Predict the 3D structure of the following.
Amino acid sequence: MITDSNIVNRDYAMPVLFNIIEDGHVVHYHYEQPWVYSDMARAMEEDRVYRDEIQRTSPGSKVHVLITMANLGPIPSGALRGRQSASFTHPTSGYVAIVPTSTQIRTVANAALQLAHFGRARFFDSLESAFAYLHEIIAHEQTPDLQSVR
């Protein structure tokens, strides 16, 4: 299982990290200060390119999202534009698990989700519970006769 210590490449200098994890079933965004909208936009473009490829090679497949944060301070201008991410708008868009580090972050993320009219996101207090949720969804997709995880 992936844990917080090996999910984020701490040697990577970008403040918004984008990784493909869980055998391609999940994309992971990790935010650390200082970051600006252009950092998020770069990660969102990587996400879109990946989702376009998945749609081309595996039509009907879903890609879920894990969003984690660390040491976040003020939220940068333009952060609400994250609602335009392929994670929310692309045909491969699946479920989203968010592990916010503060009430302020949860509030802003919730506002972006509402603006995007996106109802498949949940907030979690720990990385472990977020992964448990995503693993359950992936298992359901691979075995359609399992009961819904909503």
Summary: The first strand starts at residue 16 and ends at 21. The chain is about 40% helix and 20% strand. The mean pLDDT is 86.
